[in-house]
Amino acid sequence: MVIQERINKKFVYLILAIVLWSEPYSNLAAQEKKSDTLSLSLDEAVMLVISNNLVIQDAKYDIIMSDGDFEKFQQKFTPYLNAEASYLDSTNPVSGNAQLFGGQELKQFDATVSLSKLFSTGTMITMGLKENYFDSNDKALNLGMLGSKPADPGFYKPSIFLSIQQELLKNGFGYGDRKTLDILEKSVEIKRSMIADQLSLLIVQTLSEYWGLNILSRAVENAQTSLEATNKVRDIINKNVKFGLADTFELNQYNSLVAIAETTLAMAKQDYNDAYKKLLRTLNLDPETKIKNVTELNEDFPEINLEKAIESAFNKRSDYINAQKELELHMQEKSLYTNSLLPSLMFHAGLSTKEQSDTLGTAHKDLFSMKYPDWQIGLKASYPLWNFDSRVKVRDAELSMRKSRNKIERLDKEIRDEVISRSEHVKLSFYILTKQREIRKESQLYYNAVLEKNKNAKFDSAMVKNALDSVINARQRELEMVIRYNIALLQFDLAKNEIFDRYGINVNKIMSEVK
In Å, what is the CA distance from 346 to each residue of 120, 266, 349, 385, 457? Predict the structure, then answer.
């Protein structure tokens, strides 16, 4: 009886050992054989999320639209072509002297074509051609004792003109316009930097999800291994109970363990499927796509120069650079609004020449002779007695400057602390990884010893099962720590804004490639 029990126990532990050391990814490998699998390197996975992700596509559209206000303001300096025409045909009632010299009928045609442009210096230049036809004496009139007045012909009166307007104080020589353009341009740069930050965060998120699949797939494999081993032991114990070689309570225990293993496996599969679907959504791939798990994981400890890392963060972090740009922006806003408190003093000057003839050709032929020139100059001043709008804007700009200085000071401390903290996380993750390897090795040695000692029937099945669970859990924790360590490296690069450097990504080129 004792010999039979020992043989049964050895058979149980042999089964456990075979199950434990079977190919850890056997189930996934079987799945991959059923359908085509997309195998990606880590760099390819990064480029796939950049090119396919819908959030990135939206970000590219946002970049294109980010210069909208800047381009709209440029409209102010666009040349304008102006044209206007009118015709008047009037018959006046008889009213005594009104018709003595003007006649009873009046016909007049006016047309103007001009080109005007506002320059960034605040100078407005307008030039054009004006055509006027005037006929106010179609019928000869009887002037009594003076006889009849001869009928006058209609006259063509073309003219050419040039005018200049220049603001001297408020927005003097385009000061305010140039400031506004600088402000809008800096706003575009800030928006683009913020979008680039979103891209780097998405890369870290995607790689974390990508590597996380390794953890979840291993969890599925380990749960499957545990269930198979527990089932086999329960079957043997069930047979031994029938032959009187084992107690019923041992079967009850393993029935419970099988139920727990089944629940663990079902939950592990669901977690894996959820994470897999989320990754496919992130990569914007077809739901039926099969992706081979990425195993390009770094297990070496990098050389960390903390002072150089902090300096790099200050030079590359978009939030810090943007805070400095925001300060410059608010300083320019204050200067702009202070300028708007000045009165408006507009200088204007004009020069024109005209001609007159009863024929259109003659009138235009002599137009450039400058026989009848006109010129004028003038000044126009205006100032609101209570300029509340500009005063409030100056105050708000000053307060915004103070807030920006506080933000820079706060970021200076936060970024320094974050870089130091992330470097410490890298060191801690690597330390835990080395310890987890020791735990896995020691667990394996313990399990091997349990199997060896069992040959002398010194341990029961529960102890062997516990030893098996310890090895499985140790392998799971080791993989988790490898991935946690790689994520810590990514987060360290993110703290320095060196994600794009790590993968050789030209973010400006990527942002310009719009589908």
Answer: 16, 81, 10, 18, 108
